[in-house]
Design brief:
The protein has one domain. The protein is α+β, with helices and mostly antiparallel strands. Strands 1-3-2 form a three-stranded mixed beta sheet. The relative contact order is 0.20. The chain is globular and about 45 Å long.
Length: 129
């Protein structure tokens, strides 16, 4: 079974226990996105380097024996209405094109605290709430 075929629960378990590295999980997701996103068009902004940097940091935390969150190493996409430091938040509208928030909204902050890996921003309806 490949990493992208795992349930979120099983992926989280394998990531926490070191059976699967966050870098391998993110790489598998990036490869799958590359295969199908031309047709699906789910990603408004995908930053492979940003995602891989986080994944390597999550792997280093596990190897160092640091406490791990329940979503440690689990890749997630953030809807493009949620402010995310380091990524544009454009709310699906040209009015906010290039907008770069300087901090995370609460939801993204909680995902990061739980150990997830932010892959990028997913497409949204213009000015969704």
């Amino acid at each position: 079974m490949t990493p992208i075929e795992l349930s979120a629960t099983e992926a989280a378990r394998q990531l926490r226990e070191g059976e699967l590295s966050a870098e391998d999980m993110v790489t598998a997701c990036l490869e799958r996105i590359d295969e199908i996103d031309g047709e699906v068009q789910a990603w408004a902004h995908l930053d492979p380097d940003f995602a891989l940097e986080q994944a390597r940091a999550r792997d280093a935390q596990r190897q160092a024996g640091d406490p791990l969150g329940p979503l440690h190493g689990v890749p997630v996409g953030i809807k493009d209405i949620f402010d995310t430091e380091g990524l544009p938040t454009e709310n699906g509208t040209p009015l906010d094109s290039g907008r770069q928030p300087d901090r995370d909204c609460k939801a993204v902050s909680l995902l990061k605290e739980a150990g997830s890996v932010i892959m990028g921003k997913t497409v949204t309806t213009e000015l969704a709430v």
